[in-house]
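Quick one: sequence plus zinc ion SMILES, need structure tokens.
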Amino acid sequence: MTNGCLHSEWRAEVKVNHIADVDRYMVDVRVFCVHCNRNLRFLGLPAGVDMNLAAVSADGLEVCLAAVPEGDPVRALGADLRGFTMATLVKPHPPSVDGGTA
Ligand SMILES: [Zn+2]
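Reply:
Sure thing.
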């Protein structure tokens, strides 16, 4: 609570995008305080976009979730015949004590 707001009520904005060429869905989630509009910054997920995994945007304010409809078969995109995949993700730095990003 660095801005005086008690952050007592939160709202989520969810966008579902269908990536047609690989028939995969990406769900983007942002959570913000209703009173001061401050965003939650998500911790512990790699930064980037990977259609096989959950990740966060570079600023950590949006979670990007890979998804398929319930009951649909799941296959790792880009996997070799043994199921191994190559990912290009950037592990985030831990948050600083003062709330900054660097
Ligand atoms: Zn607030």
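The beta strands are 10-19, 24-33, 55-56, 63-67. The mean pLDDT is 83.
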